[in-house]
Amino acid sequence: MRKSLFTLAAVATLAAGAVQAAPADYAIDPTHTFATFEISHFGASVNRGRFDKKEGSVQFDRAGKTGKVDITFDIASINTGTAAFDKHLQSADIFDVAKHPTAKFVSDKFHFDGDKVTAVDGKLTLLGKTQPVTLKAHQFACYNNPMLKREVCGGDFEATIDRTAFGLNYGVDWGFPKNVRLVVQVEAVKQ
């Protein structure tokens, strides 16, 4: 009897270890999530802008070290602080908002160092073209938000892209660089 209880306990322990944690669903917090771009302006200064409207979701499994991201940015919500520049960025010269109103980042590959996310590999769709992009994390954490009474996970991520790979060629002939720095600040609330 004692041997069979030991065997039963051992089997139960092995079975419990074989069960993996399920990924948790998180909703993007639009008040703490922004995508900002930076591009040199003739080497004299840096033009910056961000997209104010966005929505999306994250699936995250810390134990399994996996995750998924799906975020959509409303290109018409571009905000540089200068209305005339915003209008030009929305025009057919650059983002062509009439034909391509959104940009989208989708990922199902997270990289970890211990429990910390260090990078996210995904696909960025802009102007109807999709290219691979790796967002490297500069910081990442999960915490219990005292106001929301829920877990929130997020971080600051960065990548440099060749904008011409998406057909964003405006100003290249004048000396504007092809490379654009993306800085993504994201927080998502556990559902």
Describe the structure.
- This protein is mostly beta strands and 191 residues long.
- The chain has one domain: Lipid/polyisoprenoid-binding, YceI-like (Lipocalin).
- Helix content is 13%, strand content 54%.
- It is built from 2 helices and 11 strands; from the N terminus they run H-E-E-E-E-E-E-H-E-E-E-E-E.
- It has helices at residues 2-18, 83-90; strands spanning 24-28, 34-41, 45-51, 54-61, 66-74, 78-79, 102-113, 116-126, 129-145, 150-162, 179-190.
- It has an 8-stranded antiparallel beta barrel with strand order 1-4-5-7-8-9-10-11.
- Strand 2 and strand 3 (45-51) form a beta hairpin.
- The longest helix has 17 residues, at 2-18.
- The chain is elongated.
- The termini are far apart.
- 20% of the residues are buried.
Question: How would you sum up this structure in a few lines?
Answer:
The chain has two helices and eleven strands.
Provide the β-strand percentage band: over 45%
Can you list the strand order of the major beta sheet? 1-4-5-7-8-9-10-11
What is the total number of structural domains?
1
CATH class: Mainly Beta
Radius of gyration: 21 Å
User: What is the CATH architecture annotation?
Assistant: Beta Barrel
- N-to-C terminal Cα separation, in Å? 45 Å
How many strands, what sense, and barrel or not for the largest sheet?
8 strands, antiparallel, barrel
CATH H level, superfamily name? Lipid/polyisoprenoid-binding, YceI-like
| Topology pattern, helix = H, strand = E | HEEEEEEHEEEEE
Pfam families: YceI
InterPro entries: Lipid/polyisoprenoid-bd_YceI, TTHA0802/YceI-like_sf
Keywords: Signal
Protein name: YceI family protein
